[in-house]
Amino acid sequence: MTAAARLEVLPGGRDTTPAETDWEAPTTAAATATAGDSPWAPEHQLVGALMWLPAEAARPIIDLVPAATIDQPITRWAYETISHLVAEGRNPDPVLVLATAQRRPCSIALDAAAPPSARRHHQLAVYLGRAYTETVSADNAAGYAREVLELAYRRAFAACGERMQALADATADRTELTTEFAAIRAELLSWWRRAEAAAELR
Which domain holds residue 183? Predict the structure, then answer.
């Protein structure tokens, strides 16, 4: 295994470990009520806005914004479920999102093959209620998507810098360093293109 392979992270620069730890954190009623992003976070507003849109209006946004851009685990679970419904041509209203999530756990849950527990499903119900009612403007879903992609690009940039630093400090040779640099450049260019394409959404 090369040094580069040992340093792989999710697209957007996020390792799975913090998400899995955060996922288990809310245990009290107060913690459950506040689980997920701040009401003003673009990810939170994007999830809320998508639940107000018909599938045909949500699809171009879903196509541009991968689930890996979503930082908070419960927000990501909601987004993944919305994406699934939109892919099936179904409008992602909160009732359908919650019902579908009973059969579709978050991809970064500790056991992504197991059905969500009742506690986790309740957390999602609370979160969906927040996201739906705290949406500032469903008409600005494309704007929230642009902001989410901008944040993802910055996270990827920071993570790639850490990877380069770690490789430089490790035993990687010049060829491996150059190969990894090319991969990092391609990754950042992919995120850049997504952000540019999102700027064209209306």
Answer: 5-198
